[in-house]
Design a protein that fits this description.
The protein is an alpha/beta fold. Helices cover 35% and strands 17% of the residues. This is DUF72 domain-containing protein.
Length: 247
């Protein structure tokens, strides 16, 4: 099977204390956790940047600790997406992206997760898109159903911006793709941020991921079901399924 796009699979974060003994050895110092994670995965989604904007030197530190080929997806600050709701974001967006660029070659897609209970606002989205630099890959995750429509998908595609497929209970999206990459977020196999995914479900995702890669899109997939270490097991399982199917 010829695969044109690169497939990257990882977790939404790595610094979880409850992973000690599940993924990280009991006696391993926390400062060594990233090295342990990066030995198993070649990408991670920076969830921490959603809750507070890291300093520029923190992004530099993340760049320096990354092995060759490792990539970070950066989740945009909730100040931009939830508090400002994309309005008048010239300065906060420039600050976020300016700092994120300190990741250098390790920078991956920038994810904008929009809030629930905020209905589709085409003009707000258009205005915000006009601020996005074309040399970075941008992805939008919609948590309110009115945003998941052909109009928003066409708008993203017209500006080479990607659509995030996710399975959040109550707002799961179709398996759509737009722009240069396919981006997936797995939020929980049996509940919100918890529970393993059934193998049959991961096998279905394997087919979709390979189809996207064959079409030429890079694929970025992250498991956010960190409770109980399910994300680790699911990420490893999905990766093994893709490797087997690619033979």
């Amino acid at each position: 099977m010829t695969v044109l796009g690169k497939i990257r699979i990882g977790c939404s974060g790595w610094n979880y204390r409850h992973w000690r003994g599940l993924f990280y050895p009991e006696k391993m110092a926390a400062r060594r956790w990233f090295d342990h994670y990066a030995a198993s995965f070649e990408t991670v989604e920076l969830n921490t940047s959603f809750y507070h904007l890291p300093k520029a030197e923190t992004f530099t530190k993340w760049k320096e600790q990354a092995p060759p080929g490792f990539r970070y997806a950066v989740k945009a600050s909730r100040f931009i997406t939830h508090m400002k709701k994309l309005k008048d974001c010239d300065e906060p967006l420039a600050t976020l992206l300016g700092r994120a660029r300190n990741l250098g070659e390790a920078i991956g897609p920038i994810l904008y997760q929009l809030p629930p209970r905020w209905t589709f606002d085409r003009q707000r989205l258009v205005d915000f898109i006009s601020l996005l630099p074309g040399d970075l890959v941008h992805v939008f995750e919609f948590r309110e159903k009115s945003w998941v429509c052909e109009e928003s998908l066409a708008l993203l595609g017209a500006h080479h911006i990607s659509f995030c497929v996710h399975d959040m209970p109550g707002s799961a999206t179709p398996r759509w793709a737009s722009g240069p990459i396919a981006y997936l977020r797995f939020h929980g196999g049996t509940g919100k941020y918890r529970g393993r995914y059934a193998e049959r479900d991961l096998l279905e995702w394997t087919d979709w991921i390979l189809a996207q890669a064959k079409s030429g899109r890079d694929v970025w997939a992250y498991f956010n079901n960190d409770i109980g270490g399910a994300a680790i097991e699911d990420a490893l399982t999905l990766r093994a399924m893709i490797a087997q199917a690619s033979l």
